[in-house]
Amino acid sequence: MLSSTDFTSASWELVVRVDHPNEEQQKDVTLRVSGDLHVGGVMLKLVEQINISQDWSDFALWWEQKHCWLLKTHWTLDKYGVQADAKLLFTPQHKMLRLRLPNLKMVRLRVSFSAVVFKAVSDICKILNIRRSEELSLLKPSGDYFKKKKKKDKNNKEPIIEDVLNLESSPTASGSSVSPGLYSKTMTPIYDPINGTPVSSTMTWFSDSPLTEQNCSILAFSQPPQSPEALADMYQPRSLVDKAKLNAGWLDSSRSLMEQGIQEDEQLLLRFKYYSFFDLNPKYDAVRINQLYEQARWAILLEEIDCTEEEMLIFAALQYHISKLSLSTETQDFTSESEVDEIEAALSNLEVTLEGGKADSLLEDITDIPKLADNLKLFRPKKLLLKAFKQYWFVFKDTSIAYFKNKELEQGEPVEKLNLRGCEVVPDVNVAGRKFGIKLLIPVADGMNEMYLRCDHENQYAQWMAACMLASKGKTMADSSYQPEVLNILSFLRMKNRNSASQVASGLENMDMNPECFVSPRCAKKHKSKQLAARILEAHQNVAQMPLVEAKLRFIQAWQSLPEFGLTYYLVRFKGSKKDDILGVSYNRLIKIDAATGIPVTTWRFTNIKQWNVNWETRQVVIEFDQNVFTAFTCLSADCKIVHEYIGGYIFLSTRSKDQNETLDEDLFHKLTGGQD
Question: Domains (ranges, CATH) in the chain?
Answer without folding.
Answer: 11-92 (3.10.20.90), 99-151+162-169+188-306 (no CATH), 370-477 (2.30.29.30), 567-674 (2.30.29.30)
